[in-house]
Amino acid sequence: MKLIMDTANHIAGEAAKAARAEVVAAYPITPQTTVVEYIQKLISNGEFDADFICVESEHSAMAATIGASATGVRTFTATSSHGLLYMHEMLHWAALARLPIVMVNINRTIGPGWNIWADHQDSMAQRDTGWLQFHCGSNQEVFDTVIQSYKIAEAEEIQLPIMVNFDAFILSHTSMPVSIPDQPVIDKFLPKRKPVWKLDSSDPLTHGNIIPPDPYLEIRKSMQESQDKARDLIRTTAEEWKKLTGFWHGGTVEEYRAEDADLVVLAMGTLGSEAKVAVDRLRKERIKAGVFRIRSFRPFPIDEIKKLSEETKLVVVDKALSFGGEGVLYSEVKSALYGRKNEIFGWIAGLGGKDVSWQDLVQMVKAVKDGKAKPVNWQKGGKGAITGFI
To answer: 2-245: what fold?
Structure first.
């Protein structure tokens, strides 16, 4: 085990190396650029045994990654914001082709106007592509999640790509201590990929040609079933990782002081981590608050959320807005609890990278507790469900 101090971007590169990715195809974009620069440096120095493909765009980066993965090798790529949007067509292709690609996405707001700070509008716009999505709250979690993602994606019953998200600059360019297990430990956890199918010149086949409606429906149904199966595998994979390394970064939700909470804050990424600080302050004021930090946006942790008491008030804090609708995470939570009595309050916070502090989160919870924030009666309809913007 070695302890290093570095940025989440460099840690993502270390994770790709530790996972023994064989092909990396990428195109630079702020704030992702230092991920691929770091990987190229490792490859050039002989520290990372992989082929690096320099391409002309993010669309080409994903196309090259798809092509490499289809030959049966382990692949890695990284992007952000407009680069992720440029990949959109190929994201659908990667999932439908059932390729276990792992990609890091550094969450950055979408233009115009140009803005390089963090919100979740980019990854939320990809929620229906078929990719699993994890959202990290620390640099250690980035490393652990990338390694675990290969194990999950390559499982025979899953065979879907995974997007590992973390916030621009808050993590991407911030150094934190990260423990990296010895390579033999990682190799034991993550052996060489055994492809379920691959392109092989000695055994030619065609894949992704014209698909009539009936088999197309079956393929899509199979993707949904694999997403559902992933819920249990996410947990058991994290348990296996903990036994080998002692680190727990897994499961679909990180619960914090939620067992006896009257109010629970639901958020993703570093906003979920900040919420833990807010909850500690609220507890000192005898306000029984807790946190559900959503790690897995796809598959969505429906069962974990349903375990909350119907008396628990939910404060959902979104860094993405579905315009004309409501917060994206809010919509998912609302759907999971349809028919329940829980009051759900949806706050839109941090769009464009606007700072959201633990003090802001404390004020949201207090507004709910004191009756100053009113939930829309979404079970009977109504105009949207946005409690407020911060």
So the answer is: Rossmann fold (3.40.50)
Half-sphere exposure of 76 (CA within 13 A, CB side): 27
Residue 362 contacts residue 278 (beta carbons within 8 Å) = yes
Domain layout of the chain by residue ranges:
2-245, 253-389
Q: Phi, psi at residue 76, to the nearest 5°? A: -145, 145
Spell out the residues 6+ positions from residue 204 whose beta carbon is closer than 8 angstroms to its own.
none
Smallest CA-to-CA distance from 345 within 379, 368, 326 is with 368
- 96-108: pLDDT as tens digits: 999 999 999 999 9
CATH of domain 253-389: 3.40.50.920
Residue-wise burial string across 303-319, b where 16 or more C-beta atoms lie within 10 A, e elsewhere: ebbeebeeebbbbbbbb
Q: State the pTM of this model.
A: 0.96
Question: Prior bond to 195 cis, omega within 30?
Answer: no
- 40-47's contacts with Cβ under 8 Å and 24+ in sequence apart are 42/13, 42/17, 47/17
Give the model confidence (pLDDT) of 9-56 as tens digits.
Answer: 999 999 999 999 999 999 999 999 999 999 999 999 999 999 999 999
